[in-house]
Amino acid sequence: MVAIPLSIRKLDDEHRLVTAVASVVTKADGTPITDAHDEIIRIAELEKAFIEAFASGGSDKGGEMHETDGGADIVQHFTFSRAERIALGFGPGPELGIVKIHVTDDELWKRVKAGELPELSIQGTAVPVAA
């Protein structure tokens, strides 16, 4: 298993936006990453999950540790495949999913800014398939 902290990388104080990596599925050399559940997610499946979750009106609301609904909204999300990285001139690198979150709750925003909540977590469900 490879542990990769999904730290918040950018804060936009004016708009209360948090930009962060939500999931990393391969290393920079293209080697798949095994997650905490001993599973591998392919970039195509991550992209499909992002599209289906939000296009179908899925939950884009969040809060602290999946326990509260509200306080934050996912306002942008995208995946970045190896092929896309190369086509856009970034060169090879890790395949990943990125989210931008608008924090609407005053107390939650204060805690994010203070560094009390330096990472994020996304949740979802999946049906494992044999490789």
Structural class: alpha+beta
Rg computed from alpha carbons, rounded to a whole number of angstroms: 15 Å
Count of domain modules: 1
Spans of at least 5 consecutive residues whose pLDDT stays below 50 are: none
Query: Residue share in helices?
Result: 10-25%
Number of DSSP strands? Answer: 5
β-strand amount: 15-25%
List the strand order in the largest sheet.
1-2-5-4-3
Mean pLDDT: 81
How far apart, in Å, are the first and last alpha carbons?
17 Å
> Strand-and-helix sequence, N→C?
EEHEEHEH
- Shape, please? globular
Major sheet details: 5 strands, antiparallel
3D structure, described in words:
By secondary structure, the protein is an alpha+beta fold. It has one domain (8-113). The protein is built from three helices and five strands. The protein has helices spanning 43-55, 82-87, 106-113; strands at 8-12, 17-24, 61-62, 72-80, 96-103. A five-stranded antiparallel β-sheet has the order 1-2-5-4-3. The radius of gyration is 15 Å and the shape is globular.
Write the layout of secondary structure elements.
Elements: E1 8-12, E2 17-24, H1 43-55, E3 61-62, E4 72-80, H2 82-87, E5 96-103, H3 106-113
Antiparallel strand pairs: 1-2, 2-5, 3-4, 4-5
Give me a quick take on this structure.
With 131 residues, the protein is α+β, with helices and mostly antiparallel strands. The protein is 21% helix and 24% strand.
